[in-house]
Amino acid sequence: MSRLLLVSICGLMLMSTRPIQADEPKPLKALLILGGCCHDYAKQSQILKKGIEARAHVIVDIDFVKDSSTKARFERYRSTDWSKGYDVIIHDECTADVIDKDYVTTVLAPHMDGLPAVNLHCAMHSYRVKGDDWFRFCGIQSSSHGPQQPIDVTLKDAKNPILEGSKDWTTINEELYNNIKVFDSATILAEGTQKVGNKNVKSGVIWTNTYGKARVFNTTLGHNNATVEDPRYLRIVTRGLVWACNKPLDEYMKPEAKPLPVK
Q1: How far apart are CA 179 and CA 170, in angstroms?
Q2: What are phi and psi of 112, to 5 degrees?
Q3: Kind and range of the H or E element at 244?
Q4: Mean pLDDT taken over the chain
Q5: Which position among 58, 83, 121, 188 has the lowest Cβ density within 10 Å, counted as fewest Cβ atoms?
Q6: 3-class DSSP state for residue 115?
Q7: Domain residue ranges of the chain, discontinuous segments joined by +
Q8: CATH topology of domain 24-144+181-189+205-252
Q9: Is beta strand 149-155 parallel, antiparallel or unpaired with respect to 169-174?
């Protein structure tokens, strides 16, 4: 047997004994919808896209309208198939004065049918149509927020897969949204406490919800850019997105690039 043939055979034997690496999962397709009042959506769109894509097998497309009023509308919502081709929608609108019920019904329809969603910050204060359709989608009804002050975030269920590896922390100056009503479909995962005057004001700040056939992840945190780019925030939002899609977190999440900040 020639030396070359022997080397080739040995090489094949070694290859056959190496562990086979599992293929990476097909990336989820997410649509991030941003626009409206009061936030730096131009920068936050990029922070969220890069942050989520760095942490999970997800491709994030962006639909950003520059209208900075509370009446901002999205062209895509004119169509009943506005969500076609996407596995999950990230709602980051701030459009409190868009109260056209037909418009909002069009937004909610695919979610009622089972399209997963992530609702961030001012999405909870959007689409205040008569009735509670949008609030039921969010899982909590909120009407206002406190001052720009730090929020102590306390995890209520640290064993929940969305919060796995996360710890309590204190944000920079942020807005604590009130909880007028928590619907039975919602499960609060983290509570925020903000000192206002001599009082400690508390509200749910991270929670899950079911709406129709859909899983929905929600957080009212994320007013300022520094919070949105905080690795602790991005980690929870990304895990919430994967959870909403009912995908295995250990399969879809990528390895942590660096340790999370301490409190």
Answers
A1: 20
A2: -60, -35
A3: helix 231-244
A4: 92
A5: 188
A6: coil
A7: 24-144+181-189+205-252
A8: Rossmann fold (3.40.50)
A9: antiparallel
